Structures are given as C-alpha cells and as structure tokens.
Amino acid sequence: MKLNIRILYLYLFSFVGLIIVVFGSISLINLGLKTLVFKDADKYPVYVDESVPMGKRTSKEELEQRQDEESRRQKQRELSNAIAMIAVGTPLYLYHWKKIQKEDKD
User: Fold this and answer.
1) What stretches of the chain adopt beta strand conformation (E)?
2) Which residues, 6 or more positions from 63, have their beta carbon under 8 angstroms from its beta carbon?
3) Of 10, 51, 68, 70, which is least surrounded by CB within 10 A?
4) Using an 8 Å Cβ cutoff, are 75 and 30 in contact?
5) What residue ranges do the domains of the chain occupy?
6) Exposed, middle or buried, 97 (CB in 10 Å: 0-12/13-18/19+)?
C-alpha cells in the first residue's frame, strides 16, 4: 500500500466518522443512565424567594414542575443530538472504511 493524499483523506474521514459515532454513543449511554439509573442527577434544589409578596410568589410545587418539564425537554434535545451523531457518523465511517479496504485489495 502506497501512502498518498487519497489514502490519507480516507483514513482521516473514517477516523472522524468513528469519533462522531463514539461521542454519540457516549451521549446516548449517559442519557440512558441519567434516565433509568440516576433519576435525580439533573435535579437541583428549589428555593422559594421569601422576599416576594405572597400573591406574586411562585409556589415550590410549581417551580419543581417547571424544573421537571425543562429536564424532560433537555433530555429530548440530548437524545436527538445523540441519534443524529450516530446517524451521520456511522455511514461516514463505513463508507470511507470500505473504500480503504477496497484500496488495500488493489
């Protein structure tokens, strides 16, 4: 196998695709662990501001509900990002890796 610009290009893009898949997989595993095992990992203590008058004050339950909704939306964003990384990285890696294998046979 001779080393030329084409082979370097193929190895580089194959490596980039593999790295994208790895980061997407790590993100997906992290999300799964936070969702199924460490359920309180994204929760923060909720404090009610006592200096605000009672009529304008947001209740602790409402603040916790808002936090849960934001946490759910954040998990959805993380999931879509992880799936997109895997969906883009896998074909990128496989295409270039197959080209490398084909070049080695020639």
Assistant:
1) none
2) 46, 48
3) 51
4) no
5) 5-105
6) middle
